[in-house]
Amino acid sequence: MKTKEYILFFRMDITTPEAQPTPEQMAVYMENWSQWIEGIVAQDKMISGNHLSPEGFVLKTNGSIAAGPYISEKQSVAGYIIVQAKDMDEALSLAKDCPILQGEGTSVEVREISNT
Predict the structure, then answer these.
(1) What is the pLDDT at residue 5?
(2) How far apart are the first and last CA of the chain?
(3) In this structure, are residues 58 and 65 in contact, taking their beta carbons and an 8 Å threshold?
(4) Can you give the residue ranges of every domain in the chain?
(5) pTM (2 decimals)?
(6) CATH class assigned to 4-112
């Protein structure tokens, strides 16, 4: 069966200092993250992915450039992975166990990568 590629965008507050995890919280978070990613790799579903820097720029149609990531409702894209799945249901099944969903004000967006 032919699989499709899906991108999972991880959104959280990456700019507010008070919203950032403590070193202890980060250690637990990274352990949970590693286990989740290893599970996807073990299923041979992982294609690629990475965390993103909180620094960057947003260019707008009027020629303005704003420093920092695009932020909506105190969320910005913190990272992504690309997975292969037979359909959206399978991609959602992989995403539902993402450990960032245990945090407050976080989300995972799942989108099919179109080849058109």
Answers:
(1) 94
(2) 20
(3) yes
(4) 4-112
(5) 0.84
(6) alpha beta
